[in-house]
């Protein structure tokens, strides 16, 4: 008899939006699934492209939804984006942050000076998801990039699942600036493999299962990291999307819900 999928791996790396929650609400069955992993002693972490909140805030939100989590389990794209920028921009440089206060705090902690507008002649722009961003914010980013500032993005997700449906993500806002500048940013976050590898190292995993709802970020990134991947059908992409996707974006498994992690029968794609 085939083992349950979770028993074929030494841990699980979850995406968040569309997998464990959508906006302020838990995905049905997600708290129970994570609780089962905890009861079984299976290590698990949370890998998210959402750069608007700190690891502490994410862990607190998960706990409020009945999903026990600690900040150490949360790997996000905001620190990855700042680290990418720090590799190329010297400490002390001026940076325009088009994103959240959390992202700005990370930029300052890394030794950069944050500035409020393109009029301050920033050396770089870093852009991350923040629901309150508006046209004026994107315009300032475009002015700075057109004036020669280096441009970085925490991630390039075009959409994000919310409680009311699918909404524009950071990639869509990045695209608006790209149209105005004719340029593209250097990006951290998924689908780059870095965060998955960092999460596996943090948790001491060698053969984790990556579970996500997006083929172009979660599944592609997990595949690039050399890990097994599972698409769960509670978010952006469908089973039909997976079947017709490029090979690099095809998951090893398709899950109807997270309950399928514990079933002996599960649908394989590769």
UniProtKB/TrEMBL annotation:
InterPro entries: HAD-like_sf, HAD-SF_hydro_IA, HAD-SF_hydro_IIA, HAD_sf. It comes from the Bacteria. SUPFAM superfamilies: HAD-like (SSF56784). It holds the Pfam family Hydrolase_like. PANTHER family: 4-NITROPHENYLPHOSPHATASE-RELATED, D-GLYCEROL 3-PHOSPHATE PHOSPHATASE. Belongs to the HAD-like hydrolase superfamily. This is Haloacid dehalogenase.
């Amino acid at each position: 008899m085939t083992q349950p999928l979770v028993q074929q791996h030494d841990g699980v790396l979850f995406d968040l939006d569309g997998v464990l929650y959508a906006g302020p609400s838990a995905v049905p069955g997600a708290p129970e699934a994570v609780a089962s992993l905890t009861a079984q002693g299976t290590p698990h972490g949370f890998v998210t492209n959402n750069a608007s909140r700190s690891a502490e805030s994410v862990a607190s939100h998960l706990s409020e939804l009945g999903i026990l989590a600690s900040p150490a389990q949360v790997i996000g794209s905001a620190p990855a984006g700042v680290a990418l920028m720090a590799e190329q921009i010297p400490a002390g440089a001026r940076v325009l942050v088009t994103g959240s206060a959390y992202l700005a705090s990370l930029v300052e902690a890394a030794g950069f000076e944050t500035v409020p507008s393109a009029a301050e002649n920033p050396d770089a722009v870093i852009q991350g998801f923040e629901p309150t961003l508006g046209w004026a914010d994107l315009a300032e980013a475009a002015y700075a990039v057109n004036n020669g500032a280096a441009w970085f993005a925490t991630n390039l997700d075009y959409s994000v699942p919310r409680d009311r449906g699918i909404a524009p993500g950071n990639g869509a806002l990045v695209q608006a600036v790209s149209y105005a500048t004719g340029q593209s940013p250097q990006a951290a976050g998924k689908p780059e493999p870095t965060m998955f590898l960092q999460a596996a190292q943090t948790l001491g995993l060698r053969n984790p299962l990556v579970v996500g709802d997006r083929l172009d970020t979660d599944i592609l990134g997990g595949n690039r990291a050399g890990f097994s991947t599972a698409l769960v059908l509670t978010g952006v992409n469908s089973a039909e999307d997976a079947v017709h996707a490029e090979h690099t974006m095809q998951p090893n498994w398709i899950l109807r819900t997270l309950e399928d992690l514990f079933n002996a029968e599960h649908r394989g794609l590769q």
